[in-house]
Amino acid sequence: MGARLFKTMVESPLTDISHIQRRQAAISELISRSGQRSHLQDLLKSISDFERIVGRVETGSVSPRDFTSLRESLSVLPSIKRHLSRLPSLGLATSR
To answer: What is the spatial distance between Cα 67 and Cα 10, in angstroms, rounded to a whole number?
Structure first.
């Protein structure tokens, strides 16, 4: 988990019981499916920090390497979506 996401989750935790239960179900599913979890981790490792790249675009300090990272990251997203769609947990489909 990235530092910005962790900060957001700490500052604005889930308060709705149904959202909490869906997240718990999603986590339980990922824990019980170690092979699928490992594959998902590998896919996620290949994704660059979108927020950082967008910040560089906004400030005009973006480099060709950033655009390459962005292109490669975006190309992985369909695989991640397909992988998550194969997991039956409702939490994986609706987690924020």
So the answer is: 31
Q: Measured between alpha carbons, how far is 34 from 18 in angstroms, rounded to an integer?
A: 25
The SS3 call for residue 15 is coil
pTM: 0.70
Whole-angstrom CA distances from 51 to 4, 11, 14, 62, 96 are: 9, 18, 22, 12, 17
Contact between 36 and 30 under an 8 Å Cβ cutoff? The reply is yes
Contact (Cβ atoms closer than 8 angstroms) between residue 93 and residue 84: yes
pLDDT in tens, 65-81: 999 999 999 999 999 98
